[in-house]
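Student: Please help interpret what follows.
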Amino acid sequence: MADKEFAAEGGVEKKSSKKMLFIIVAAAVLLLGGGAAAFFLLRGENETTVEDAAPTARRQQAPGNIGPMVDIEPFIINILDDSGTRYLKAAITLEMNSPAAVEETRLRMPQLQDAILLLVGNKTFGELADLHGKLQLRSELRERLNGILTNGRVEKIYFTEFVVQ
């Protein structure tokens, strides 16, 4: 009688172990398939976004290359604010795309400084206080300066000093 019970239990163990093995295999296949799908979908989005956002000149430049730099002397300027007088002290470094652009930047420095001061002077404290405002200012400055230059262009703008008070 004990042998019959053992045989019956063994039969149950074999059926439940086959079910468990099937569930484990199915779960593994689903996890691997889902992970692979997510990898390819997310990878495709990032490549498209980077290519669409990068300017044509940037695509041709080798990664890691840094263009010649031009420092603009620190300046202090009044900025707009309802609560009183506010000041911005900033220093900027321009990354240029060619040595010819560096020479033109040095020749046109008064024009470039004037454009910077006029643009920054019309900003409010609220616009310059957060990261989004600083990034927006950087973008506007690059557009404005590239509108003045004819022999080259500003690739990047770096704020090497930026104090609002």
Notes: The CA atoms of residues 18 and 24 lie 10 Å apart. The first strand starts at residue 69 and ends at 79. The first helix runs from residue 2 to 53.
